[in-house]
Amino acid sequence: MKPIQVGLLGTGVVGSGTFNVLRRNQEEIKRRAGRGIEISMVADLDTARALALVGSGVKVTSDAREVIANPDIDIVIELIGGYGIARTLVLEAIAAGKHVVTANKALLAVHGTEIFAAASAKGVIVAFEAAVAGGIPIIKALREGLTANRIQWIAGIINGTTNFILSEMRDKGLDFDVVLKEAQRLGYAEADPTFDIEGVDAAHKATIMCSIAFGIPVQFEKAYVEGITRLGAADIKYAEQLGYRIKLLGITKRTDKGIELRVHPSLVPTRRLIANVEGAMNAVMVQGDAVGTTLYYGKGAGSEPTASAVIADLVDITRLHTADPLNRVPHLAFQPNAMSDLHVLPMSEVVTSYYLRLRVADEAGVLAKVTGILAALGISIDAILQREADEVGGEGATQTDLIILTHDCVESEMNAALAQMQALPTVLAPITRIRKEELA
């Protein structure tokens, strides 16, 4: 059978990895797919780079639309990234009757509803395994492997840059700004790391997993997003002393009131496997009613790990290329006419427990005032750690750190408590609040 013809848009890190892995493992892939898969056309503004990658026998162009217009191309791989031209090209490829493979989590998190609707109407597939957690097959696990389950929650370390930074802060006792510069030097962080360190990248991925897990439209605009920029080395140290590690988690959860969708630093018990995921690695925990807790671990980025996921999508499409569109796995796991309108909760309605660090004056009555505010709002305390003043500021210090772990409460109540505590004259610096996730 004639090989299925693929057009590649973008020959950067992932694009070059995809071409190289497909060429290197072509015979093994053909045995699995049932026919050959061949990248026969490549588009990149840097045509010299593209030519150096593909050599002779593959057409290279600087115009992506030339690839989309080619009637011989069956599948278009979009590896350009971003919301702008990528969206236009993906929609044009769908309109031309091409299947699409993309690693573009930002595009799908923001415009996924429009893109999936267009693909369904045209009877083509949009595959996106590489958009979440790189080489970890979490999309296939959620959409197919766990299809018998009522998913209860997902919690994932889904940004390698921030996990590397937090791991280094813990191992070396350094503050965020110092470790960020080292991460940039080593190539783990971009020159502009905003999307990573502010949690936006993780929120894009959490949004996609949320939609698949609960059968709701992608709604990135409703995600709560908080990054790691305000964390200090002291918080990492205190968390360790209390039996926790701090991880930036993407969390989505089914509750009686609706769906939670949030990204923020979290205290995770050290005994949990996910708390021990270090460096730039990713991991995702999924809780299903039938299977219980499952954990998926691996490289969340990189040329060939991400290429592994891209090529897995190519194989899936090749197998299903001639299948009736109604018999394919739905893009978001649930049939399009069976999607739910479950409410995504605002953060103020989320229930969780908290770690609080207060820099306070070292004088009598401070602890009583703080605990009195929490008690008045019905927030119960799980543990208190009060440092000696000389441990914090050296001999003769007049201020100290007060660390409080709470039991579960509604976020709005904690917000009210923090406002009252911050107004106390004996609270000398902005209060650090980190949510605590037991993941039991």
Helix-strand blueprint:
Layout: E1 4-9, H1 13-24, H2 26-33, E2 37-43, H3 47-54, E3 59-61, H4 64-69, E4 75-78, H5 85-95, E5 99-102, H6 105-122, E6 126-127, H7 138-145, E7 151-157, H8 160-172, H9 176-186, H10 194-197, H11 200-214, E8 224-225, H12 233-241, E9 244-254, E10 259-269, E11 281-288, E12 292-299, H13 303-320, E13 351-361, H14 366-376, E14 381-386, H15 389-393, E15 399-406, E16 409-410, H16 411-422, E17 432-436
Parallel strand pairs: 1-2, 1-4, 2-3, 4-5, 5-6, 8-10, 10-17
Antiparallel strand pairs: 7-9, 7-11, 9-10, 11-12, 13-15, 13-16, 13-17, 14-15
Outline the structure in words:
- The protein has helices at residues 13-24, 26-33, 47-54, 64-69, 85-95, 105-122, 138-145, 160-172, 176-186, 194-197, 200-214, 233-241, 303-320, 366-376, 389-393, 411-422; strands at 4-9, 37-43, 59-61, 75-78, 99-102, 126-127, 151-157, 224-225, 244-254, 259-269, 281-288, 292-299, 351-361, 381-386, 399-406, 409-410, 432-436.
- The protein is an alpha/beta fold and 440 residues long.
- Strand 9 (244-254) and strand 10 form a beta hairpin.
- It contains 16 helices and 17 strands.
- The protein has three domains: 4-136 and 303-336, NAD(P)-binding Rossmann-like Domain (Rossmann fold, 3-Layer(aba) Sandwich); 138-299, Dihydrodipicolinate Reductase, domain 2, CATH 3.30.360.10; 352-436, ACT domain (Alpha-Beta Plaits, 2-Layer Sandwich).
- Helix 2 (26-33) runs parallel beside helix 13 (303-320) and helix 6 packs parallel to helix 11.
